[in-house]
Amino acid sequence: MSALREAAPSPALGELRLLGEKVGVDLTRHVAVHETNPTRGRSRRGHASDLVTEIEDAGLTGRGGGWFPTGRKMRAVVGAVKHNRKDPFVVVNAMEGEPAASKDATLVQYNPHLVLDGAVLAAEAIGAKSITVVAHRGGRTHTALARAAAQRASAGIDGIDISVLDAPGRYVASEESALAHFVGDGIALPVTVPPRVFESGVRRRPTLLSNAETFAHIALIARHGSQWFRGVGDPSAPGTLLVSVSGAVGSPGVIEVPTGTTIRTILGLAGGTTGSVHSFVTGGYGGSWVAASEAIDLPWTVEGLRPAGGVPGAGVLVAVPTDTCALVETARVARWMAGESAGQCGPCRFGLASVAEGLEHLATRRTSSAEVRLLEQRLGIIPGRGACRHPDGVVRFAATALTVHESEVVAHLSGRCTGTRRTALLPIPSGVTAIPVSRPGEEWR
Amino acid sequence: MSGKVITVDRIKCDGFGTCAQLLPERVHLDEWGYPIIDPTVMHGDEGKHAKRAVAACPRLALSLIKVAAR
Question: How far apart (Å, rounded) are the C-alpha atoms in residues A323 and A422?
């Protein structure tokens, strides 16, 4: 999706678990590096295997953005199976919907079989008989996963069927209820929850839907155990994680670090900042802006980033340089995100469009303090009023942009803009038309 | 002790606004005509009025759910 190159891994921080060696789709090589899958046989319906306990003990949390304990989620799926007597389903989310993220793509280029091993082990642990892997239509990730799955099928190593699907690249298609809906019925739109995906997901079966990176960690926990897993990272969410670092850094790319690593260290591993940086985007476009001065020494965990209003989300970190007007960037992203709404819920459909418009007026300095107040009021009433969290994410992104860049808001209100950058910093997927902030006669900046 | 709260299925809701007319003490509409609902547990006669609003929703988007009172 984005053209981030892979940054050099840092041995200084200890072992690299996911990006240690670029194994690729060759199954023989995967087995030589990571050994065969330590299969424990499929659990009986409604029973969880000891691997679920191991994952709970490991403290693994979902790397797709939710940071929910994976073991507890697996336990909930098994509980739902017991209750409604339907076989569970496993879905691997390799969609990477966040435009500034490329961690799942990188992981899949390095170790696709680790992701599939994890999916097979998780399926066995909860008694699932089928696995569906979903990746972005037409992308390298989909190609690599499909080839890896085909190799496994011809080698006959898994006692379970793995199908690899390609889904449309809409932002909301990566949302968990939308993805379960897509796998079951071919419609990549969010559905009203509850019931949640773990109790009624793909074709109303209890469904374990997790991010590709989470499954790769499961494969390693099955091999090395929970104590090993907890050997690095913050005790609140142990292990390593992948961070997609971009913006004003010397060496943009995906890096693997222990959870709890500070933003300063993460930036250092990505080649350090180039020039003066005034803020960061954390988590993704459904994440938040933070002031560089407040966040630079905070650890990358849910709790750790909170004091500055940051979120780890899907492991996105963008260093935004001082020459860039964050309000212009936010307006572009908000307009794109408004267009990515499925349009099913009124507050999202109409609310996000109005937020995008308000931000565009602010970005182009055609606004008034009354209009900014109206924008802030709208940001206050939209959250929690969609079937999914898409509107909440956009609102958080927009609201934190305004608070973190308060002095820029004041400047824009008096007709000035401190940004001098003439090209867009935050990526917007190609093939999707974002309405430009500029109007005819005004040069796009 | 438990009570009832009103919820709306945001996908079904098309912003007819009937709920806000029948239950103004609990529901008001945003500028686009979609309901903003008081999420707290209802008391006394409110349940009766809420039931009427639930039944009258043209999209059947409104429902009453039982929750543990906070």
Answer: 9
Q: Is B14 on the interface with A (CB under 8 A)?
A: yes
What value of ipTM does the predicted structure carry? 0.92
Distance CA A116, CA A122 (A): 10
Tell me the residue type at A374: L
What does the alpha-carbon distance between residue A234 and residue A260 come to, in Å, rounded to a whole number?
Answer: 5
Which tokens is A357 given?
Answer: 């418009």
Residues of chain A with pLDDT under 50: 1-12, 432-445
Helix axis angle, A326-339 relative to A346-363, nearest 10°? 150
The pair of structure tokens assigned to B61 is: 């988007």
pLDDT of residue A438: 43
Q: Which of B16, B30, B38 to mutate to test the interface with A (most CBs of A within 10 A)?
A: B30
B30/A387 touch (CB, cutoff 8 Å), yes or no: no
Q: How far is CA A235 from CA A17, A56, A117, A231, A307, in A?
A: 17, 13, 25, 9, 18
User: What pLDDT, on the 0 to 100 scale, is given for residue A5?
Assistant: 42
β pairing state of A161-167 and A130-136 = parallel
Residue A282: closest CA among A265, A295, A268, A273: A295
A414's CB contacts (< 8 A; 6+ apart) are none
In angstroms, the CA A397 to CA A378 distance is: 14
- CB B13 to CB A385 under 8 A? no
Contacts (Cβ under 8 Å, ≥6 apart) of B2: B66, B67, B68, B69
pLDDT score recorded for residue B70: 52
Q: Which amino acid is at B55?
A: A
Out of A191, A346, A378, the one facing B13 most closely (by C-beta) is A346
Longest Cα separation, chain A: 68
Whole-prediction pTM: 0.92
Chain A residues closer than 8 Å to B9 by CB: 192, 387
Q: For the purposes of burial, counting CB atoms within 10 Å of the CB of A41, is it exposed (0-12), middle (13-18) or buried (19 or more)?
A: exposed
Interface with chain B: mutation pick from A345, A355, A371, A374, highest number of B CBs within 10 Å: A345
Structure-block tokens of residue B21: 């007319």
Report DSSP state, residue A6: P
Contact (CB<8Å) B14/A346: yes
What is the distance between the alpha carbons of residues A245 and B59, in angstroms, rounded to a whole number? 45
Where does residue A56 rank: exposed (0-12), middle (13-18), buried (19+ CB within 10 A)? middle
